[in-house]
Amino acid sequence: MPGIVLVPGVFNALLAMMAERMGFKAVYLSGAALTASLGLLDIGLITMEEVVRVVRYITDAVSIPVIVDIDTGYGEALNVARAVREMEKAGAAAVQLEDQVLPKKCGHLKGKSLVPPSDMAKKVRMAAEARENSDFVIIARTDAMGVTGFEDAVERARLYLEAGADVIFPEALESEEEFIEFAKRVRAPLLANMTEFGRSPLIPAKRLGEIGYKFVIYPVTLLRIMMASAREALSLIAQQGTQEALVPKMLTRKELYELIGYYEYEELDRRVSQEVEGR
Fold it and tell me: pLDDT (tens digit, 9 = 90+) per residue, 133-146?
């Protein structure tokens, strides 16, 4: 879609491969989706090393840019610097850093607390200076809207831009009018979060592009739809003792093998075997 980049949230390499196959130009490793997939709460429990491991799996599997949610940076400013270096080495194209106090919460929940603006600005500056590739993108998220209000969100965004952020992510804006006003007052590449069941209205990407947003993420959409489908499947199997009615809804064996490159592997194995045996 011209003017805005649609970025689905993924939590493993297979989903990233599917997104790339479907024509998406980037994927977002969602902290909420990743932690949920591991049976963890999205309150900062996951470690940097765990996230880096998943990033490597994803970047090895796809050629499109991977944006990584690094929550609050796993500590203070020096921790952020290390996180940026590790994510960059793992193949990420961008990181998203937020200005909450640990234990952090989902941006659409109440009861959040913010670090002082200067503390977040220091983290952003450290992130910008730690990257080795100038094309590596630093996304600064502010959760001020749900804590200290719209005006503070605007002021924090401007401060984070001055500190070196490339993209600003205003979390949990509550109306299309607020999205419009934020874009008018913060002149920068902007990211919109269209998560379901949150405080923000689900605004179509075309409209977000028209009002000044460059990126739109769908962080937990795939996890939610997959879990609902899994619940349906488990219920049917428990009731009927067979999955036969679900087969038409499934990705076929052939489709899965095509997605993960199984047939290419078979061909490689066949060719190498013939070359070795033919000596």
Answer: 999 999 999 999 99
